């Protein structure tokens, strides 16, 4: 009896392991080996080659993100929320794609800015552009879909932020969103967001604490990106091998607005993060998905990803949250149409 009660956390740890992308990868490969053993090598080879190709982008992205976190460069984002409202909206849309925030840090950072009187329009611009692009996402998208698509997504991210920011500004001037905030109580694990009066330390290697943070961020982000991209490429291999190309082409292929609208509406509830989506969309485009539909799907999915929605939902009232989602899907459709035309 004593031996049974000495390690009560073992079942919990086992359950957490089962929920990881690694466990899902193993389960998928075992399923392929059992149900279609003749195709197992092709699935593994496809996923392995794709992951190796993206490895160079992963390494650079992790190094860049670790450097930004070690230097404390994310504090520069606070400067976007100073000055005139129009200037705030422009800077918030741009910095939203550059800030190395995790979803945990965004909440106390934005809560503090809203409490200090930062306009909701600038915050909305930041919220809409932030989940769409960041340095790692840009590189991973380029590796999977090419630089034209990655640059197009970056432009769409800033444009969506500007679109949302100025729409909210107009609504606020007509009397909407007079009291947008919920009552916010920061959790103990998230009370360490960047401060506006901090300054980046570009030569971080001169301070032991910052060197340690660089190492910790490198390991953490490297494993995070590796596991999600490994899962994404395994899913892409399944997509290419088992989903008929004509089915994809019939739903989201071809010209016109309808495939783009369908892609946005499908991408919205898909909840794919920006690291999983590019490889899957690479597979879909090979199967016949149009470029505009791919862009629409990726933008709508990023805006509605669980971390992005949680950051918004935790701080603002339902009508502001609904506006965030509405602006996201509308912007995704517009971006898809414009990208298709280029």
From TrEMBL:
It is found in: Cell membrane. Keywords: Cell membrane, Membrane, Transmembrane, Transmembrane helix. The keyword Glycoprotein does not apply. InterPro entries: DUF318, UPF0718. GO terms for cellular component: plasma membrane. It is a multi-pass membrane protein. This is Permease. The lineage of its organism: Bacteria, Pseudomonadati, Pseudomonadota, Alphaproteobacteria, Rhodobacterales.
């Amino acid at each position: 009896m004593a031996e049974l009660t000495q390690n009560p956390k073992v079942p919990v740890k086992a359950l957490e392991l089962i929920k990881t992308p690694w466990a899902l990868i193993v389960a998928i490969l075992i399923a392929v080996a059992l149900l279609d053993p003749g195709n197992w090598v092709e699935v593994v080879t496809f996923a392995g080659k794709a992951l190796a190709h993206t490895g160079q982008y992963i390494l650079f992205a992790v190094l860049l993100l670790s450097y930004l976190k070690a230097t404390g460069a994310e504090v520069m984002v606070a400067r976007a929320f100073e000055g005139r409202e129009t200037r705030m909206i422009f800077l918030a849309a741009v910095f939203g794609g550059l800030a190395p925030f995790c979803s945990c840090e965004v909440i106390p950072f934005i809560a503090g800015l809203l409490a200090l009187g930062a306009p909701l329009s600038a915050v909305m611009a930041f919220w809409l552009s932030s989940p769409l692009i960041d340095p790692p996402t840009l590189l991973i998208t380029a590796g999977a879909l090419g630089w034209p698509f990655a640059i197009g997504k970056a432009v769409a991210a800033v444009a969506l932020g500007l679109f949302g920011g100025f729409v909210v500004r107009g609504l606020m001037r007509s009397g909407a969103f007079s009291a947008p905030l919920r009552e916010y109580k920061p959790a103990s694990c998230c009370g360490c967001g960047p401060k506006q009066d901090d300054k980046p330390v570009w030569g971080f290697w001169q301070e032991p604490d910052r060197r340690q943070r660089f190492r910790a961020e490198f390991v953490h982000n490297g494993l995070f990106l590796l596991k999600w991209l490994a899962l994404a490429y395994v899913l892409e291999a399944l997509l290419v091998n088992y989903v008929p190309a004509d089915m994809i082409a019939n739903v989201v292929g071809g010209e016109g607005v309808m495939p783009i609208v369908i892609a946005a509406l499908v991408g919205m509830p898909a909840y794919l993060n920006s690291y999983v989506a590019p490889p899957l969309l690479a597979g879909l485009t090979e199967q016949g998905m149009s470029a505009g539909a791919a862009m629409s799907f990726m933008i709508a999915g990023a805006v509605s990803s669980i971390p992005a929605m949680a950051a918004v939902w935790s701080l603002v009232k339902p009508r502001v949250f609904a506006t965030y989602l509405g602006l996201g899907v509308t912007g995704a459709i517009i971006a898809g149409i414009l990208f298709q035309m280029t």
